[in-house]
Each structure stands twice: as structure tokens, then as C-alpha cells.
Amino acid sequence: MNVVKVLDAKGLACPMPIVKTKKAINELESGQVLEIHTTDKGAKNDLTAWTKSGGHELLEYEEENEILKFWIQKG
Questions:
Q1: Where do the UPF0033 domain residues begin and end (predicted)?
Q2: 7-17 pLDDT per residue, tens
Q3: Three-state secondary structure along 41-59?
Q4: Which residues face 7 on adjacent strands?
Q5: The pLDDT value given to residue 1
Q6: Structural fold of domain 3-73
Q7: 3-state secondary structure of 66
């Protein structure tokens, strides 16, 4: 996976992880991958729904030591 940008949204509460993700993904070209790290438990549902509604693709998701990691490919 060719990650172009990593977004550190750890410690931020809803809706900030989504706000920061939207800003970061707008800086990417179509097909590029954004990696997001967050500690907001609601981010799994929020980012999954946001990714679908925005025409992007959630490539992978994992949880490691209370940190949620997402890989989203820009549509």
C-alpha cells in the first residue's frame, strides 16, 4: 500500500477526526492513500460512513493499543 500522507488525529473528539480527514483527503490526488490514526472510538462508524458517502474506499482498518488506524483511498 502506497501511503502518501499520515494524519495524526489522536486525542481529538468527534467531529474533529472527520474534519481533519476531509481536509487531508482534499490535498491528495485520486487513487492516493491516506493513513489516519485516532483514539476516538466513534471514528470507526463515522469514517466508514463518510468514506462511502464521499466516494472513497476504506482499504483497511485495525486497532492497536487503543489506537484506531484507517487506510482510505481517495475516489
A1: 7-31
A2: 999 999 989 99
A3: CCHHHHHHHHHHHCCCEEE
A4: 36
A5: 81
A6: Translation Initiation Factor IF3 (3.30.110)
A7: coil
For CA atoms 61, 63, 66, 71, give the dihedral sign.
negative
The catalytically annotated residue of 14, 28, 58, 59 is 14
Pairing of strands 33-38, 57-64: unpaired
Q: What is the pTM of this model?
A: 0.94
CA gap 36, 75 in Å, rounded: 16
pLDDT digits 0-9 by tens, 23-64? 999 999 999 999 999 999 999 999 999 999 999 999 999 999
Residue 20 near residue 9 (C-beta atoms within 8 A): yes
14 has catalytic annotation: yes
